[in-house]
Amino acid sequence: HVLAFLQQECVFRIGCLVIPDEHELKPYIENISVTHCGRSGRIDLAVSFWQADLHLHLYQLSDLEPEEDLVDDETDGGGDDGGLSLCTQWTLPRRDFQGLWDTLILEDHVKDRLLDYAVSAMLFAKKKVNSHVISWNRVVLLHGPPGTGKTSLSK
Q1: Cβ neighbours of residue 94 closer than 8 Å, sequence gap 6 or more
Q2: Using omega within 30 degrees of 0 as the cis cutoff, is the peptide bond preceding 93 cis?
Q3: Closest by CA position to 48, among listed 20, 19, 8, 18
Q4: What is the phi/psi pair of residue 136, to 5°?
Q5: pLDDT at residue 151 greater than cutoff 80
Q6: What is the spatial distance between Cα 119 and Cα 108, in angstroms, rounded to a whole number?
Q7: Mind listing the pLDDT tens digit for each residue in 87-99?
Q8: pLDDT tens digits, one per residue of 23-34
Q9: Is 76 or 146 the better-scoring residue by pLDDT?
């Protein structure tokens, strides 16, 4: 049904596609977004349906509360605040983070390189690649002045 809807669009541009209220998909699909139109980086690029190489990714956004890993804080005299938070874990994909990636303004092709890295990492994990045979760094160091999107990017 989604593919039939996309065929009706004829031309794709980066951004959201509007699903009419009367369409049969409307009760089931909240949003359809075109996120890439080639690797040119031009947001005004239009691609015809017959030229497009479609990759559909369907997902349900989570509204679950984040979970915190806590450790007892022995310096406060045993207060009842639950301890120090070591980390916060969110169930992804998360409604709170929807659209966050699009707000990040990074140097040319940084987003593409980060996505390629993430896809490679997931492929290596899926194929159970032995890190002693194929060496690859599983760490990304984010650096820059405050307000440049490091925390948003890590989310």
Answers
A1: 61, 62, 63
A2: yes
A3: 8
A4: -150, 145
A5: yes
A6: 19
A7: 888 898 899 988 8
A8: 898 999 888 888
A9: 146
Distance CA 15, CA 75 (A): 50
Alpha helices (H) in 91-147, listed in sequence order: 100-103, 110-126
The pLDDT value given to residue 12: 80
Question: What predicted TM-score, i.e. pTM, was given to this entire model?
Answer: 0.64
| Domain residue spans of the chain | 1-58, 61-95, 99-155
The letter for the amino acid at 149 is G
Instruction: Name residue 137's amino acid.
Output: N
Structure token digits, residue 146: 């405050």
Q: Tell me the sheet residues that pair with 89.
A: 67
Distance of CA 34 to the CA centre of its chain: 13
CA-based angle 37:40:19, to the nearest 5?
20
Token pair of 51 as six digits: 């030229």
